[in-house]
Amino acid sequence: MLLEKPGRTRREPPRQWRGQSVVRHVEVEYSDGQVGLAALRFLVVHSSQLARQVATAYTAAQAKEAERVTEHRQRVEARWFACGADAEAAVAEYEGRGQGRRGRKPRPWRYHALHYRVEAVSVPKKRTCRGRPSKAEAPQVELRYRLVVHPEALVPSQDAHGWTVLATTVPPEVCADTEMLQAYQEQNTTVEPGFRWIKNPAAISPVWLEKPERIAALAMLTVVGLPQVQGVVAV
């Protein structure tokens, strides 16, 4: 247990932060271009409050995606195929492994897993001649193929929510894990307000520069304009 605070209301349970820090040696590149190993400390924190927020947001996003899954299911199951090969090709296309597709498979569904199955259905075959068929004539049928979609709502583990990784170069002897976490939380009232200008629409307006000296001047202006902050950062 790193830190515990009472809930904001009487009904809200206490907010808890659990975790521990580890020191790892990672490669860093210095201003002169040299690459070396430096000790970097990582504090892995699990926040109960953040876990509840993420779980609530996940449930809302999953319900919103369920509507699109229903529309996709109706559209897919309404298609008919003349042979099983065409149906299997459609399944491969929906699953992102169609012919000619390369690279990483697309993930159109983030909160659901869709399982496709080819189903053969016997349907009456259309007669070539007109008139009512005779009683002795056997009804002719043909096989047509369709896809059946079985959506599955993904249920993530509760332990996967609420994790944050903090990184710093301050050794544990100088700053304990609890002090490190508190220092990061105190930045919400000191450092974060200084970055409000980034959320201004004028700050994200496109600037078209072609000359290298103009690009370097803009980069220098951006670096000088940012507040110089040393301490704990979130990874």
Descriptors for this entry?
235 residues, alpha+beta, five-stranded antiparallel β-sheet, 29% helix
Question: How is this structure best described in words?
Answer:
The chain has 235 residues and is of the alpha+beta class. The protein has 4 helices and 7 strands; from the N terminus they run βββααβββααβ. Strands 1-2-3-6-7 form a 5-stranded antiparallel sheet. Strands 4-5 form a two-stranded antiparallel ribbon. Strand 2 and strand 3 (35-47) form a beta hairpin. The chain is elongated, with a radius of gyration of 30 Å.
Strand content: 25-35%
**Helical segment count:** 4
- Describe the global form: elongated
The overall pLDDT, averaged over residues, is 81
Helix content, binned percent: 25-40%
Strand line-up of the largest beta sheet: 1-2-3-6-7
SSE order, one letter for each helix or strand:
EEEHHEEEHHE
End-to-end distance, in Å? Answer: 21 Å
| Count of strand segments | 7
Low-confidence runs: 223-231
Protein topology:
Elements (H helix, E strand, L loop, with lengths): L2 E3 L9 E15 L5 E13 H30 L6 H11 L17 E13 L16 E13 L9 E6 L8 H14 L21 H14 L7 E2 L1
Antiparallel strand pairs: 1-2, 2-3, 3-6, 4-5, 6-7
Quick structural gist:
The chain is 29% helix and 28% strand. With 235 residues, the protein is of the alpha+beta class.
